[in-house]
């Protein structure tokens, strides 16, 4: 894993965007199209803003896959991850395609299978991910399933994850935060050719330290990224502040 530390979130976002744009261009040049996984959350704001503003990307040749979504939450809800992605990616760059997870589908398990079949047909060139305050990767909270080969799965969100969503201002109260989600699996994320992990803010510092300096373990889901040969981790000074060798 290549770990890079920047002075500010803005610098982090710009640097990650430059690298991600180069990966997209490489995939387009090689395959005629780039397939990408997109994360959400407050930690991705600066990165996605910088990426959307990057000139020269033929977005008509970029197809996105949705990383995770709450079960039962309508797209009209302010915390809907579909809404986030449509506002912060689709409306800005008009990509060639975006395979959303319909979290309020009548049968969430069938929806997980549907998007799973779609992603099986398209090797992923780049994954944009983060690390949760509890060390989660996507919505794979600890202890995460490191074994399943299913591309997407139904998961139960732990209290730490739900409190993070509340703390970021997406919900009015903890009781409003959904308890279930459809999440891309750990093994599916690791199948990406490149992984760009964007993790700013001091609130992420304990998870960053544990995922980098403790053993790779389902108790620290994002620690598995250390086994991926082409992962770059982008930190700011705050999120890197607890590392023994920042």
Structural write-up:
This protein has a single domain (2-236), classed as Rossmann fold (3-Layer(aba) Sandwich). 33% of the residues lie in helices and 19% in strands. The protein has helices at 9-31, 45-52, 81-93, 108-120, 159-167, 186-190, 205-213; strands spanning 2-6, 34-38, 62-66, 68-70, 97-99, 126-129, 152-156, 180-184, 194-199, 231-236. β9, α7 and β10 (231-236) form a beta-alpha-beta unit.
Which labels suit this protein?
246 residues; alpha/beta; Rossmann fold; 7-stranded parallel sheet; 7 helices
Present the secondary structure layout.
Layout: E1 2-6, H1 9-31, E2 34-38, H2 45-52, E3 62-66, E4 68-70, H3 81-93, E5 97-99, H4 108-120, E6 126-129, E7 152-156, H5 159-167, E8 180-184, H6 186-190, E9 194-199, H7 205-213, E10 231-236
Parallel strand pairs: 1-10, 2-3, 2-6, 3-5, 6-9, 9-10
Antiparallel strand pairs: 4-8, 7-8
């Amino acid at each position: 894993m290549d770990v890079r530390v920047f002075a500010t979130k803005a610098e982090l976002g710009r640097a990650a965007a430059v690298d991600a744009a180069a990966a997209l261009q490489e995939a387009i040049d090689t395959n005629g199209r780039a397939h990408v996984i997109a994360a959400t959350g407050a930690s991705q704001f600066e990165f996605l803003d910088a990426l959307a503003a990057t000139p020269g990307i033929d977005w008509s040749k970029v197809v996105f896959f949705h990383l995770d979504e709450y079960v039962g939450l309508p797209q009209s809800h302010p915390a809907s991850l579909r809404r986030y992605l449509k506002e912060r990616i689709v409306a800005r760059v008009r990509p060639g395609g975006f395979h959303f997870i319909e979290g309020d589908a009548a049968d969430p398990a069938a929806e997980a299978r549907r998007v799973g079949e779609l992603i099986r047909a398209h090797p992923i060139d780049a994954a944009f991910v983060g690390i949760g305050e509890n060390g989660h990767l996507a919505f794979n909270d600890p202890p995460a399933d490191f074994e399943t080969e299913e591309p997407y799965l139904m998961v139960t969100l732990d209290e730490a994850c739900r409190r993070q969503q509340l703390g970021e201002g997406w919900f009015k109260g903890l009781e409003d935060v959904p308890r279930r989600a459809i999440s891309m699996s750990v093994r599916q994320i690791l199948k990406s050719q490149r992984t760009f992990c964007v993790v700013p803010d001091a609130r992420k510092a304990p998870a960053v330290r544990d995922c980098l300096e403790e053993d790779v373990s389902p108790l620290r889901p994002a620690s598995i990224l250390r086994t991926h040969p082409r992962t770059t981790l982008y930190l700011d000074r705050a999120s890197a502040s607890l590392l023994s060798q920042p």
